[in-house]
From TrEMBL:
GO molecular function, one term: alpha,alpha-trehalose-phosphate synthase (UDP-forming) activity
Family affiliation: Belongs to the glycosyltransferase 20 family. In the C-terminal section; belongs to the trehalose phosphatase family.
Species: Flavobacterium arcticum
Lineage, opening ranks: Bacteria, Pseudomonadati, Bacteroidota, Flavobacteriia, Flavobacteriales
GO annotations of cellular component type: cytosol
Name of the protein in question: Bifunctional alpha,alpha-trehalose-phosphate synthase (UDP-forming)/trehalose-phosphatase
Top-level taxon in the UniProt lineage: Bacteria
Biological process terms in GO annotation: trehalose biosynthetic process
């Protein structure tokens, strides 16, 4: 038996420089969770995803990397991959599911490419599937996959997890009918359909009832071949990794360097992929409002804004980058002076140690997505504050706000409110900082990413076993009757 994990990106990437290949393993949350889970529970793991390298590079290098899991890359033709990933996945599904209907650029061609890519990946999985395997599908790139696999393997154990929000019916219905049906029937191919929050789960069940006319009982949809259980499985982080990093020698040195650079100034920090869902322009305008409203904070605070390049081939992302940079320039020009730059901006990722040094130097983490499935940055900030110092300002539109109850919550569209909460958090006493962080840390330590993976995989097994027993009993009854 093995777990077949499916996600658009593979947990490793191969980059060639000057003819030499460099293999790097992803340190992302999903890869860490699934790889550690399989190592701990001693199950075999095979990861299927779309390769960001060509087949020749793979053939040359696949044996040069020591790993305890298998990789099955899918090589998609360039144009097909572009339409599948940039067009339907990111310019339709990502936009719509984050409540940006006006950003949706639907084309039939994109939808056809999406379906074709899902078929190719299904064929690949089917070619390595063996009875007893568990197939765990991730995210909005593969909404059609559970159904396609169910057609190949009616008895397979299939789990589907969506990392972004599932929108409400009024938003979802904007899609053409054929796409709506494809998505909903696609997910219903799984035994378990997981979402970050109950709100998302309810949106999904409502869409199934209203569009497909299939009712549910306790979030269970009965179909001929199997049942699908919809439920909430909030993803989390490797708590200990972030908590313990506080004391790493390099992190301590970097933290001292950052603190030394800014002296007595308080630090506001944020890090995101540059994405219109992350509310970066709103955040900047709110920071400007804060400086206008509380001029006594002038020269006493600095906002470290780290943005990570993302989906740069898509027009909307380029436009957003320009807008952000215009705002940073305008605010620094209007509010700053030759001694003080209010916003220190970088459009480059930082490595793990620097990330922790920034988290643990920050007096305030300002996280303001206008819509976010979960938001792991919020959880990482809390976990890394071993010193119990700092305050988390978190948008109520992020899934994480449902769990991090002691965060200072904001409406990301309300600049006035964010300015006031910034003022409050920057002035927060140490006792209150400790109380809030302690409670959130206790929660995160218990609800870490390993528990998330375990709960999801256990749920697949539970539903599957229950259905198998029920169908055996049905078979027995039929035998008796005949
Ligand atoms: C999707 C959903 C959901 C970011 N910059 C750097 C860096 N990061 C790491 C963070 C964090 C991750 O990337 C970002 O995770 P988020 O959850 O904040 O956001 P998305 O990328 O949009 O993820 C989201 C998630 O899936 C999981 O289900 O929570 O809602 O949109 O881990 O630390 N890491 C390093 N340097 C950076 O510059 N080292």
């Amino acid at each position: 038996m093995k777990i077949i994990t499916v996600s658009y990106r593979l947990p490793l990437s191969i980059k060639k420089t000057k003819g030499k290949a460099k293999i790097t393993q992803s340190a992302g949350g999903l890869a860490t969770a699934v790889l550690s889970y399989s190592a701990k529970s001693n199950v075999n793991l095979t990861w299927v995803g779309v390769a960001d390298f060509d087949k020749a590079t793979w053939d040359e290098n696949k044996d040069n990397y020591d790993r305890n899991f298998d990789i099955e890359p899918v090589f998609l033709e360039k144009q097909l991959n572009r339409k599948f990933y940039n067009v339907f996945s990111n310019s339709v599904l990502w936009a719509l599911f984050h409540y940006f209907p006006s950003f949706v650029e639907y084309t039939d061609e994109g939808f056809e490419a999406y379906k074709r890519a899902n078929e190719i990946v299904a064929e690949k999985i089917n070619s390595i599937y063996e009875p007893g395997d568990v197939i765990w599908i991730h995210d909005y790139h593969f909404l059609g996959l559970p159904k396609l696999l169910r057609e190949y393997q009616p008895n397979a154990k299939i789990g589907y997890f969506l990392h972004i929000p599932f929108p409400n019916f009024e938003i979802f219905r904007i899609l053409p009918n054929k796409a709506k049906k494809y998505i909903l029937e696609g997910i219903l191919g799984s035994n378990v359909a997981g979402f970050h929050t109950w709100d998302n789960t309810i949106h999904f069940t409502e869409c199934i009832e209203k569009i497909l006319g299939i009712p549910h009982k306790n979030f269970l949809f009965s179909q001929e071949s199997h049942r699908t259980k919809a439920g909430s499985f909030p993803i989390s982080i490797d708590f200990d990794k972030f908590h313990d990093a506080y004391d790493k020698e390099n992190v301590v040195a970097l933290r001292n360097e950052i603190k030394g650079l800014y002296g007595d100034k308080k630090i506001i920090f944020s890090v995101d992929r540059l994405d219109y869902t992350k509310g970066i322009t709103n955040r900047l305008k709110a920071f400007e409002k804060f400086l206008e409203k509380y001029p006594e904070w002038s020269e006493k605070v600095v906002f470290l804004l780290v943005l990570v390049p993302s989906r740069e081939e898509i027009k909307k992302y380029g436009e957003r980058k320009k807008l952000i940079e215009l705002n940073v320039g305008r605010i620094n020009g209007n509010m700053g002076n030759y001694k003080w730059t209010p916003i220190v901006y970088q459009y480059q990722p930082v490595n793990f140690d620097k990330l922790i040094a920034l988290y643990t130097s920050a007096d305030v983490a300002l996280i303001s997505p206008v819509r976010d499935g979960m938001n792991l940055v919020a959880k990482e900030y809390v976990a890394s504050r071993k010193d119990l110092r700092g305050g988390l300002i978190l948008s109520s539109m992020a899934g994480a706000a449902k769990e991090l109850k002691e965060a200072i919550t904001i409406n990301p569209f309300d600049a006035e409110m964010i300015a006031e909460k910034l003022y409050y958090t920057l002035n927060m006493g140490e006792e209150e900082q400790e109380r809030r962080l302690e409670r959130m840390q206790r929660y995160l330590k218990k609800h870490d990413v390993f528990r998330w993976a375990e709960k999801f995989l256990t749920e697949i097994e539970t539903i599957y076993q229950h259905d198998t027993k029920a169908s055996d009993m049905k078979g027995d009854a039929q035998t008796i009757l005949s």
